[in-house]
Amino acid sequence: MQSGGKALRNVWLAMVAITMASPLAFGRATGDRRGYEELLDALEYSHTTPDGNDLILWFRRNRSEAARDILGLLSDQANSLSGEDRNELLALLAEQEEQPLLKQLTPRSKEWSASVVLQALGRFGRSDSLPLALDELARISSRQWRSKRCRETAAESLASILRRDASGFAQLGGRAKRLSEDGITVLAQACAMTGRPEAIAVIKNLLKIPRASELKVLASLESLRIPREGFNGRHADVARGFLDHQDARLRRISLRVLRASGDSEAIEELIEALEDKDRGVQAAAANALRELAGTDVAGADADGWQDWYEGEVEWWADNEFDVQDALLGDRAVSMLRSLRSHVFLRDRLTAALRGALDHDDPGVVALACHMLGEFGLAHAAPDLCESMDTSHEDVRSAAHTALQRVTGQPFSQNRETWWRWMH
């Protein structure tokens, strides 16, 4: 058995051997602050080729250290690291959520692929990272844009930044003009994914850029859901500008946007579109009408739809007050079920359904949440968020499911997360 002094000497010799073989291995072996400082000194004053695996392993064990030092170190030695190592370390750096990272990353961003930089910015970036994000968007080649994963990564990263800091919408105008057709399309999709009302003006301006694909940019409005009172149907106003366009494809897409908006005020324009000379436009109008009505009332018969529309308006005039009273009392469940046949009146039913969310019976509240989800009323999102604050699991689950449905957002069943996003 070795004496304590001899054993300690052997450990010291082993550490020296490790250090001589690879300064980075010393940082990996010690895993403490002293090892980190030795690692930096060794790389700065030696010509040792850094091992990307050592850097990544050290960083995982020492996440509290300054991200800027590691990034500077990596950037100085970037040519010695494999692309896979650089990309993995950049992703780890992004998890630190330190703004100094942005300053370090900006002049060195071209050492990584544009999609990787965008992904990193999406993890921590706020509005001040948008200039770099848009520069990276412009750097993606037409060949890279063919990749669905590339498009989805870029759109989600930009959307994450804008969700985190809505003041960034104001920065998109000038820089967007330098983007390619694909870049403009992805930016429009990212704006729509945020569910923010500011997205409407940005998408409207993107449509004015000469090389923008009106078809693709306008189509992005289909996925826009705005959880704010007063904004329901605003994006439908943008689509209305294309209902008389000479290109039938744009007329079709505008009708799809109207369908997705759930704007009942578009009903007469949809009925009129049934008589369009293009069969595709007629079909799009009929689909939109079925969506608004919740059922196929009259196929492609414009007169039939007009009669139905007038009947719905008359029914509401006769039953408005009875609906409100019933939803507050013992007839709530039966009234809620009967309202499923009046989906078209979803906008007018919002106030009554909100009242049902305060009902004493959790079963009534859960059913009201389900109906708000079925109706797709995005501006009812704040009320649904409030309904998640309950001890009744069925109500909380129904409110969460409805929130995801009406907003298109993927957030978990965490009320604070939803509240921060909406405000």
- How many individual β-strands? 0
Rounded to an integer, what's the Rg over CA atoms? 28 Å
The biggest beta sheet is recorded as: none
Find the structural class using helix and strand composition.
mainly alpha
Query: Which runs of at least 5 residues are low in confidence (pLDDT < 50)?
Result: 1-33, 42-50
Q: How does the overall form come out from the CA principal axes?
A: flat
From the N-terminal CA to the C-terminal CA, the straight-line distance is: 68 Å
Along the chain, the helix and strand elements come as HHHHHHHHHHHHHHHHHHHHHHHHHH
Average pLDDT number: 79
Share of residues in strands: under 5%
The percent of residues in helical segments reads: 55-70%
Put simply, the count of helices is: 26
List the helices and strands and how they pair.
Layout: H1 4-21, H2 23-30, H3 33-45, H4 52-61, H5 67-76, H6 83-94, H7 100-105, H8 114-124, H9 130-139, H10 142-145, H11 148-164, H12 172-176, H13 181-194, H14 198-206, H15 214-219, H16 234-240, H17 248-261, H18 267-273, H19 279-293, H20 302-328, H21 332-339, H22 346-356, H23 362-375, H24 381-387, H25 393-407, H26 415-422
Structure write-up:
This protein has helices at residues 4-21, 23-30, 33-45, 52-61, 67-76, 83-94, 100-105, 114-124, 130-139, 142-145, 148-164, 172-176, 181-194, 198-206, 214-219, 234-240, 248-261, 267-273, 279-293, 302-328, 332-339, 346-356, 362-375, 381-387, 393-407, 415-422. It has 423 residues and is mostly helical. Among the domains are: 1-106; 319-422, no CATH class. The longest helix has 27 residues, at 302-328. It is flat, with a radius of gyration of 28 Å.
